[in-house]
Design a protein that fits this description.
mainly alpha
Length: 88
């Protein structure tokens, strides 16, 4: 489990968001997360859960190499990916 995201993760996501022509607020809304959380991920202060990583990959239309980097950084036991959360 990685709690401190790789330094390249934030810039990668920021560049993909800009490439997609989305503001942080709009990208966060489309991914189903709050804008401050996306801001913290882009700033390298937070690590996304696997569920959030998938949502960001879809929203930002990440390339396969970008997806691999984001999924490798994601954690499986936090937030929406926590095992105790019910999946419905």
């Amino acid at each position: 489990m990685r709690r401190t995201p790789p330094k390249a993760l934030g810039p990668l996501l920021r560049a993909a968001r800009v490439r997609a022509g989305l503001s942080q607020g709009e990208a966060a809304r489309r991914a189903g997360i709050r804008q401050p959380y996306l801001s913290a991920i882009e700033a390298g202060q937070r690590t996304p859960s696997t569920v959030v990583a998938e949502a960001l990959a879809d929203t930002l239309r990440l390339t396969l190499p970008e997806c691999r980097q984001v999924y490798a950084a994601a954690v499986t036991d936090a937030g929406r990916s926590h095992p105790t959360r019910a999946t419905t």
